[in-house]
Amino acid sequence: MSPAQPAFFCLGLCALQVIQAQSGPLPKPSLRAHPSSLVPLDQSVTLRCQGPPVVDLYRLEKLKSREYEDQDSLYINTMKISNAGRYRCSYQNGSHWSPASDQLELIATGVYDKPSLSAHPGSVVTSGGDMTLQCQTQHGFDQFVLYKEGDTEPYKKPERWHQADTGPHKKPQSWYRADFPITTVTATHSGIYRCYSFSSSSPYLWSAPSNPLELVVVGPSATPRQVPTELPSPITETSRRLYNLLSTKISTTEKSMNITISPEESSPPFGFSHQHYARGNLVRICLGAMIIIFLVGLLAEDWRSRKKRLPHRIRAVQRPLPPLPRA
């Protein structure tokens, strides 16, 4: 067998493995709205689909309609009621389409009047106590959502919803209210809250946000363990040093646990980079194996050619010597 044949065989095997790796299932893209999926009317928003670094074609579509764009982003200059709804995206590489992304719900806010948000018994709460946030509107809505400033997802959904009247001495008027109870209040509940109301028949058309309500938590922290600020007296120098070392370690641990997660769109998803890294390693391994086999084949061919060029040595045959001449 010629030494070039194993090299070509290895090349074909590596190419087949690379093709099979590339023709595997494509990873799912992600779809996000910038700056937020809650968009006030007449404001702008951008929908962006993110896939692997190399993509032949993107498709961004609105569900339950025939509207779609063959691009990775959709810019809405002025938010309208017709723009609200569910969106998804996918991409094409070669003849294969990726799975569709998770659905993105684009919400139009400010379609209805804002509700009112109140805190009971008050907006200043002692740590460890219980309180309730109430969202109230005059419209006959059956859905309420509570948001905390800084969060991208609803903070809490109502546990109770009911209708109340103003009373017999006033003009009859119905109020629709949802209660958001918070038990065992801690310092983490401090912040600014807003609520929205909408109808389940039009889940993507929300009211304007309520006026902001700031919740203040006072009193001792509800955390179970705290490091004392002072050690009981008397205390030795060795114990003081040990205490300072322990306080430093606990402080360092608490700081290391306070991690800010960067937005996911700042870097490509792990699946994409991992897949390309694995393919690159596969190609490098195959090329290295081909080079080794080719070099071994060259050495074998050179050895065989040298062996053929060696002269055949004839073994000397012992013959009797002729007699010496007589003197």
Give a written overview of the molecule.
Helix 1 (4-22) runs antiparallel to helix 3. The longest helix has 40 residues, at 270-309. Strands 2, 4, 5, 7, 8, 9 and 17 form a seven-stranded mixed sheet that branches. Among the domains are: 28-110, Immunoglobulins (Immunoglobulin-like, Sandwich); 113-218, Immunoglobulins (Immunoglobulin-like, Sandwich), CATH 2.60.40.10. The protein has three helices and 18 strands. The model is unreliable at 222-239 and 249-277 (pLDDT under 50). The chain has helices at 4-22, 237-257, 270-309, and strands at residues 30-34, 38-40, 45-50, 57-62, 68-69, 73-76, 85-93, 96-97, 104-112, 116-120, 124-126, 131-137, 143-148, 160-165, 174-182, 191-198, 205-207, 213-218. The chain is elongated. Helix content is 24%, strand content 30%. By secondary structure, it is of the alpha+beta class.
Q: Helicity range of the residues? A: 10-25%
Beta-strand residue percentage:
25-35%
Q: How would you sum up the major sheet?
A: 7 strands, mixed
Number of E strands: 18
The count of helical stretches stands at: 3
> CATH architecture of the domain at 113-218, please?
Sandwich
What Rg, in angstroms, do the CA atoms define? 38 Å
Give the CA-based shape. Answer: elongated
CATH-assigned fold name of the domain at 113-218? Immunoglobulin-like
Structural class: alpha+beta
CATH superfamily of the domain at 113-218: Immunoglobulins
Give the mean pLDDT. Answer: 75
* Unreliable residue stretches: 222-239, 249-277
In N-to-C order, the SSE pattern is HEEEEEEEEEEEEEEEEEEHH
Just give the CATH class of the domain at 113-218: Mainly Beta
* Distance between the amino and carboxyl termini: 67 Å
